[in-house]
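Dear colleagues,

I hope this message finds you well. In preparation for our joint manuscript, I am sending the Nucleic acid dioxygenase ALKBH1 (Vombatus ursinus) sequence together with its predicted structure, so that both groups work from identical material. I would be grateful if you could confirm receipt.
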Amino acid sequence: MMGTMGKMAALAAEPGEDAFRKLFRFYRQSRPGTADLGQVIDFSQASSTRDIGHKVFRSPLSVSSVSEQDACRAGLQPVNKWKAYGLEGYPGFIFIPNPFLPGYQRHWVKQCLKLYSRKPNVCNLDKHVVAEETRDLWGQSQELLRNKDVNKKRPRSLLEKLRWVTLGYHYNWDNKTYSADHYTPFPPDLAYLSEQVAAACGFQDFQAEAGILNYYRLDSTLGIHVDRSELDHTKPLLSFSFGQSAIFLLGGLKRDEVPTAMFMHSGDIMVMSGFSRLLNHAVPRVLPNFDGTSLPHCLEVPLPDALPAGSVAEPCSVEDWQVCANYLQRARVNMTVRQVLATGQDWKDKETETTSESSCHLDDKNNEAKRPRMNPNS
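The corresponding structure tokens are as follows:
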């Protein structure tokens, strides 16, 4: 049988196709459970760097920067129990396989679906659905999702049509900028989580100012792009994944450089700063759960009945989790958090410039590099 590299080499190039686009197309068409995924790095399987290849090395963390109590408040294990990895040739890139305490991922899934999707936050449905319906997408969708039968065809709920939500300083997809007058309060629980992870990675002064939440279906992709709209690229971009797994491609400054493929599983965190902030990246494929169950095992554990004092997590009822679990059977949620302004800078000093090479909108099917056009009736 032809190996992964042979299959990639045999894939006919499209006119004008670069190396990144070719690999993107290969993984978009890949088949789970076959040799197609043989070259994808799986950080969750690494007991040593030998298990995942010569490009991977252990990345040091600032254990003393986050107390065990503060980590627990965010739903995280003590930092000295985390494993963090870097990749040769990608300075500023850190991958942390699921550092969450058992059960706490459920809080963040529920927040993404129930709270962060509410007004006044901005979402892709705003231009396609009447304002009354987008005020509370959870309320409009929960009964349909709670009674969902995956084997029966039915109209999709509004939550299942949700593709992105912006938080804090709302990203303008048309001119690729942030502005002072397009702002709503950033969620304090997500700010706290982000600041603890940033501090553990050596960014003690990080301020969570903007968030983009992406809601993937199994046929969704995230097009090849670079995140450049924030002013200070030394500040990290934090990425949190929940639900079904995905393949993430991290490339170079130019798209003719072959990217590195890696899995993102539920609970995994990626941190990109400095040089890695300027690299092309994309998500060509969302994968159904590897072991054949509807959800990853890490999501089967409920939140503790008694949450620690000061925890930012809130109880998640059985009814609410049933909605979340049914949603996640064919979906993945990703939270990215950024600091928009440079330290000590305010909007009077400078408005952000239009510097992003392409918008990072989700698309379904084959339009991965373009902004999705939603059909409210589909």
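For the figure legend, we might mention the following. Residues 188-200 form the longest helix (13 residues). The chain has one domain: 19-149+156-344.

With kind regards,
E.M.
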